Amino acid sequence: MKNVLVIDDDEKICWAFKQFLEGEGYNPTIANSAEEGLRRITSDKPDVVLLDVGLPGMSGLEALAEIKAHHPWVIVVIITAYDDVETTIEAMRLHAFDFVPKPIDLDVVKGVLERAFRTQSVRSTLPVETDSDSPAEQREHRLVGKSEQMREIYKLIGVMASNATTVLIEGETGTGKDLVARAIHMGSERKDKPFVPIDCGALPDELLESELFGYEAGAFTGAKAQGKPGRFELADSGTLFLDEVANMSPALQVKLLRTLQTQEIERLGGTRTLKVDVRVIAATNRELGEMVKLGEFRADLYYRFKRISLHLPPLRERQEDIPLLVTHFLQLIQDELGKPIRGISEEGMKLIQNYAWPGNVRELENCLRSAATLSRSDVILPDDLPSEIHTGHTLTSDSSHLETSLKSVLRGITKAAIAEGSQQLYDDVVTLLDKALIELALDECSDNHSKTAELLGISRTTLIKKIKQQGDENSRK
Questions:
Q1: What is the DSSP string of 393-406?
Q2: Is pTM, for the whole model, over 0.85?
Q3: How many separate helices (H) and strands (E) can be counted in the chain?
Q4: Which of the two ends of the chain, N or C, has the fewest CB atoms closer than 10 A to its terminal CB?
């Protein structure tokens, strides 16, 4: 039987609720005060509580806090005035499941109750085991997966951890390259020494150089009076993780190669040579081999990195790991949000497993964090998931429509080129598309060159070169 407790001091409303609930197949009980309601929750153990805010004595919000503190499994629906925004916000902050506005619409009540009992039904089958024995930091940095691809990754991590050779980790954005780097460090003899990460794509060249190698007092305008050690110095005896190395300028690549060969650095503006003992792990979401062929990355630095390499598979190629990742992330997220998250409904899990995840593991984590935040209970339902998960909307799903639109535009351009006797149609169209796409990407990324390069899948150096070329062509026109 589906048990519903109504807590309201208005006898007419209680009578109306009782008639309605019995007619819908629920088993209702009535309490006319918060104090009586709390006693009935202890004795009757209702599944859902309809709780009026304006109660004599203990208020509805005070009762809600008490219920959630002592009976967290109970779903509480608040009854409040339609325009009482402050009360509604406070009720949702206290983890009310939903609210029913006054004057009461029984169709609204019916919909809320159906959703509440659907949540209770899912909740009973989806416990999330809390790994409380592991420190939060360890759980946050844990690699998760039992697929064949991940088992091979674990083997390679073990091999890499046993020596101090430079490592290159390749893989799409969001696949967990930073976690692999940290796992290699934690499995090595350097595990008790610093692990120092730096995102080479997030900083302009000048700042990246000073961050890596440090600087002496007065090295440049704004430099600290006492100078500053760089990441190589901070990582001495430990591991330096260079994320997105494809974004490094050619000049910085030369300096980095020299450091890798000699294990020596010089601070900017300095004359002293400093000896360092640093293991370098590099990562990229680009194909460095292709960049070498195009002259966009130094071959000698590439082969220095690639002494040992590892390729992380995208999430779409290891879908069997998705349920494990969901459980893992929900354990982390419930600690972060301070509310229990038991799991996700079967329908929700199907949506997640059918999605392509272009942003990989990172996108999955962000999706679950959003859903858990928006969920009004300790169970994530399909309605809590972002809209793109429902539609499966990705670049791939739009490709046929995009191709059709492009063909329509290009057909007119081609006919015009034939009429004019053009012999460079290909170059003209590619240049036009290149220019338009870069302008749009820059606009979407607020002119941030590093983010734009990542979006386009090219190096920052290549992007800047293209922008300069386009500027030169515009000035000649």
A1: --TGGGHHHHHHHH
A2: no
A3: 21, 14
A4: C
